[in-house]
Amino acid sequence: MSRDAPELPEGLNLLDRYTIVDHIGGGGMADIYRAHDSRLDRIVCVKLLRNIIQQEGGSTSGGIVYQATYTHFLQEARALSKLAHPNTLRIYDFGFLQLDSDDSSQVQPRPFQIAEYLDGGNLETYVRVRGTLKPVEVLAILGIIHRDIKPSNILFSRVGDVLMPKLADFGIARTVRRRLKHSLRPPGSPSTTDTQEVVPPIPLFSPRWAAPEQLSAGDEGSFTDVYGLGLVIGFMLSGKSLFEVPDVNATFGDRVQGDQYVRQRLALHSYAPEVARVLMNALRADSRARTQSPFELYEALSQAFGTPRTSLPLPVAHSGGVPQAKAQQQQQDTGSVQASFVKREKAAQSIEPPEQWLQVGGRQVRLVETHEKLDLTIPPRGLTEELRLRVTLLPARGPQFRVNFKGLTCFIGRPGGAASPAIVADADGTGELVSAKKERVGGLRWSFGTVRGNSRVFPIAKGELVVPFPQGECALAVELSPDREVIVICRRP
Predict the structure, then answer these.
(1) Per DSSP, what are the bridge partners of residue 404?
(2) Share of residues in the chain with pLDDT > 90 (%)
(3) What does the pLDDT average to over 456-468?
(4) Are 256 and 386 within one domain?
(5) CA–CA distance, 213 with 261 (Å, rounded to integer)
(6) Which of 316, 333, 352 is the last residue of a domain?
(7) Is the domain of 475 the same as that of 363?
């Protein structure tokens, strides 16, 4: 089976209550699925350990790495089950599954976790797509003890119009040997009460976000979290990883042996002097000279920003209506409207994707410029909860491109066909939105427009919207229903 092909088919039932809805992604260690909990009528996340472990750099593991990762996966479930904090991922259940495999040596049941489903993305995507964060928003992210801190491990739960950060992946990914006594075990496996199973010192962290003591197999502690948080803070403020270099492995020696390399990398960014000093103290190669705890780092950063302690949540773009301030800026135009865009350097200072509201042909149009994808929220009308839909522009050479529609809390139906979790289209079309209860809850229409010279033109009611290149090269008009606004999504060049 292809590594990218989902192993758990839609409709598969786990533990007599969790029904697989679709495959939503994964990393080097596990595949991630969305599932429906029939007992509590809620969407949950299923995390299934992969048979072949994909390591950073593209190589795949052998049996030793798999065993270490297997242990890491079990430890993560135990760690999550002991946590009770609003900013940590909640785990609901755990189990083992025997899957058919072409590899006859794969006899060990595959573990999986059932956790809460977080639909707000992760910090890495948030910063890369929506721009750098303000000091008050950086402070809102910090604060949880961990061993593998990186932006992709900081997830968001969407609550109304805000995003609440939650820290995930609590496998306590140390490089030391560990005893498996009292660990979770698949049914029928030998007991470890009287024996000691030893895990080899396999690095399960991400090198780009790792501390020197992790790279050199040294002792770890809260100062290790400080180093990871220092890198994440730099990423939130600059939009780039401090060690964003072609070959991160080539920098190991420089990062372990002293501070000169880190000092040079920090100088490449325009941090305020006070902030740069805080980051340098968090990124010392010698852990004894480093800021010793995340709390101390938080206090130092707060003073450097001149910002009081905060729990301010991050805003999320909402398509459920036009804010009053923006409504006053709408253009009253029933003819041809030329789209204009905020300059990219200015847009990078905004949390939300650059957008504007227009009146075209008597219809309300929301014009959004984004890197590749946009999540649309459909407020409830006779429903118990709002629906969410993700639109991803898939570029190709020339003016042709494709679009992927993926239901985050719904399904998508095509005329004459069954509803599915996602569809891909390369021409104008229509569909319908279907709830988890298989009820039709709204229409969906999309248009690729017409290329006219150096623009893409979208007919809208009695007028037309003209989107100039380069944004117009990959632009799509989406209509959720006749009485809602038209959303024109443009891929940022």
Answers:
(1) 392, 424
(2) 19
(3) 89
(4) no
(5) 16
(6) 316
(7) yes
Same domain, 331 and 304: no
Whole-structure pTM value: 0.56
Asked if residue 180 belongs to a domain, the reply is no
Parent domain of 143: 119-172+203-316
Tokens for 485, please give them.
């606004």
pLDDT at 237 over 90: yes
Tokens 């005329």 sit on residue? 415
Name the residue with tokens 């350990």: 49
Q: Cα–Cα distance between 181 and 188 in angstroms, integer?
A: 16
Is the model's pLDDT at 331 over the cut of 70? no
What is the spatial distance between Cα 211 and Cα 284, in angstroms, rounded to a whole number?
A: 9
Mean of pLDDT over the chain? 75
- For residues 226 and 282, is the Cβ–Cβ distance under 8 A? yes
% residues pLDDT > 70 (the chain): 71
Residue 185 within a domain: no
Write the pLDDT tens digit of every residue in 82-119: 766 677 788 899 999 876 555 544 456 889 999 988 87
Task: Give the total number of structural domains in the chain.
Answer: 3
Phi, psi of 452, deg, nearest 5: -130, 100
Instruction: Report in angstroms the alpha-carbon separations of 65 from 53, 62, 480.
Output: 8, 6, 47
- CA-closest candidate to residue 354, choices 344, 363, 364, 362: 344
Instruction: Assess whether 133 and 231 both reside in one domain.
Output: yes
The answer to whether residue 178 sits within a structural domain is no
Q: CA-CA distance, 262 to 267, in Å (whole number)?
A: 9
Radius of gyration of the chain, Cα coordinates, nearest whole angstrom: 24
Pairing of strands 455-460, 332-333: unpaired
CA quadruple 184, 186, 187, 192: dihedral, nearest 10: -60
Sign of the torsion angle spanned by Cα atoms 116, 119, 120, 126 = positive
CATH of the domain at 103: 3.30.200.20
